[in-house]
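User: For documentation purposes, I need each entry recorded in a consistent format: the amino acid sequence on its own, followed directly by the corresponding structure tokens. There are two entries in this batch. Please keep commentary to a minimum and don't merge the entries.

Assistant: Recorded as requested. Entry 1:
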Amino acid sequence: MSPAEKNILKSLVAVAWADGRMESAETSVIEGLLSGFAASDEEEQEILEYAETRRTLEEDIPVGDLSDEDRELLFANAALLVQADGKETLSERRVLIQLGLLLGLEQAVVNDIVESVRRTSVRPRA
């Protein structure tokens, strides 16, 4: 796993904690990304242990270490994370807005990513 991928995963942990708790669906998304990023067993353990402690957007996202591409990838995965449980709350929308601002993304990019994720997310049946 590259340092950029590790930064993205740690940042997603902060996004997951933004509502004050880490849900199992959010943990599953992070575990899926660990697999997608070909994390070693040690890297996986490091990230999962990191996720056990509450994190914040302002303190735990290394914005200065993220390239423009990393920022967009982080935001896209954050939008997916918000959809992990099949519903998007007002609080989660606020987190995405805050994250977009923190990452310095243009509003059009934020809107495009969020709408794309909403269109492609599978919603559980009621």
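Entry 2:
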Amino acid sequence: MTIILTTHYIEEAEEMADRIGVINKGEIVLVEDKKLLMRKLGRKQLTLHLQHPLERVPAQLAGRQLALSADGNDLIYTFDTQADSTGIAGLLRQLSELGIDFKDLRTEESSLEEIFVNLVHRR
């Protein structure tokens, strides 16, 4: 059975749909399995709440997808869940070697709404 739901409420689509279609200005941008879409276009971030703030990301970590929060208390690592390795273990090892400790950590992934907004704004 197929039910077509048109909505501007992305949360509703994310909860109910197996497949997602995005239409922008009358043009079909994509039609994709929701889980596959989330994996392909979504991103994951690991946020480390540091024991002591940093002024900048150390030069030794320059090759990584790292950002520092404005107050220097959080180190944010963006990684690809589709890659063979996320690089998290190596990052944590390197932070330990540099004497950078953290108090807490959390991970977040893109919502369907963020993916939708990125798709529409790219067009």
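Summary note for entry 2:
Helices lie at 10-16, 34-41, 88-97, 112-122.
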